[in-house]
Every structure is written in C-alpha cells, then in structure tokens.
Amino acid sequence: DAGVTQSPTHLIKTRGQQVTLRCSPKSGHDTVSWYQQALGQGPQFIFQYYEEEERQRGNFPDRFSGHQFPNYSSELNVNALLLGDSALYLCASSWTGMTEAFFGQGTRLTVV
Amino acid sequence: AQKVTQAQTEISVVEKEDVTLDCVYETRDTTYYLFWYKQPPSGELVFLIRRNSFDEQNEISGRYSWNFQKSTSSFNFTITASQVVDSAVYFCALSEVTRSGGGADGLTFGKGTHLIIQP
Q1: Which value, in Å, is the radius of gyration of the alpha carbons in chain A?
Q2: How far is B9 from chain A (nearest CA, A)?
Q3: How large is the average pLDDT for residues B87-115?
Q4: Quick check: B111 pLDDT over 70?
Q5: pLDDT band for position B102 (cuts 50, 70, 90)
Q6: Residues of B in Cβ contact (< 8 Å) with A44
Q7: Consecutive sets of 10 residues in chain A, 112 residues long: mean pLDDT of each?
Q8: Element (H or E) spanning A45, and its range?
Q9: Of B72, B8, B88, B62, which is closest to residue B34 (Cα–Cα)?
Q10: How distant is the Cα of A94 from the closest Cα of chain B, in angstroms?
Q11: What is the Cα–Cα distance from A88 to A12, expressed in whole angstroms?
Q12: Cα(B105)–Cα(B114) distance, rounded to whole angstroms?
C-alpha cells in the first residue's frame, strides 16, 4: 500500500514564475492538506481540500491556490514566486473521521 | 488563535540516557487534539501519537511516553534509554475540532526540537 506520494522531489524556479506541485493521497484517504516548511521552522498550514473544495485555509496569500480531483489527488499552485517561497512543501492525507494525518516526503522548492 | 511552543531548539544526549521534549500550547477551544510527529533527515513527518483534550491519561508505547497536563497546557514527550536512531527533529502540533465531515483538521506546529543522540 503506497503512502502519500509527492512530485516532483526537487524543483528550482525563477522569481515571478508559477509552479505546480502534485500529491497523491494514501489509498482510502479523501482529505488532502498542504503545508509549507521553511528551513529550521515547523510546517505551516496552507489549506485543505475535501470533496474537491477548499475546506479550511491558513494565513497564506491568494497567490497560493489548489485543486482536488475526483480521485482525491491534489495540486498546489503558487503564482508570482518570491524568494521567500523557497521551502519544503508537504502534503498530508487523511480520511473522514480520522484525526491524524499522514505526510509525504515533500517537494523542495528553491526560488532563485 | 492557536499556538504551540517548543522552547528547546536542540538537545544532545549520549545514547541510553532518558530525554524529555517539552511542548506548551495555547488554544481558546475546549475540545482539541495534540500530536507528536518525528521528522528524520528524509523530510517525511512520521506520526507518533494523538491525544484528545478530554483524555488526560498518560500513554506509554515501548520506550516512548507522553505526559498530558491540561492544567499547565503541556504535552511532554519522553524517550527512555535513547538510541542513535531516535535522532531527528520532533514536532508537537495542535488541531481544533471545528468541522464535521472530512478528515483531520489543519495542524498548528511548534518550531520543533532537534534531538541528537550521540553513540
């Protein structure tokens, strides 16, 4: 049983560009959350998707948007990249009624 | 607003010593969940434990134990007889119970404690 998988593993982008990160949840999970983890910091909650809708959102600007597909996989889009967007982006999945989330290995985004 | 504080940035001990990682939280909610996650160098966060706000029983799992004290808003984690493989960054996290349907709510994490176990 595959766990949470994220792609790509590493990514380098230029300031001002747009980026899309992808996440496939653990089998049977229907809820996907995204987190941003800057170097030396704890993860910060970006948003969560359930039933293809954004259900909950953290304190992130509108440049951060997402999508959930009917197969529960999800994308995180970031527009107009800033140097400060450089971080490890973590995806977590869970299922209805479950309070703990399972994380993928993350996508390391570097903005230059 | 929720907040999780892990005051210990880094702890270094010699193998086989016991070590306690501190976690203090703030929330206005009466119902919430507390978690501990382990992050090895690979980056993936590994779930260790979940505790409900209405269950103050301490828990032991092998060499790991957790002490939840609602009166002091603390949820501390102790590793007994530490091993080199315990070296990692450990995060304490909090989530509120605000929604019906769907899975786990968004988590508020502390900044983490980097635990170094020396052989």
Answers
A1: 13
A2: 10
A3: 86
A4: yes
A5: low
A6: 109
A7: 91 98 95 96 95 93 97 97 98 86 95 98
A8: strand A44-50
A9: B72
A10: 5
A11: 12
A12: 25
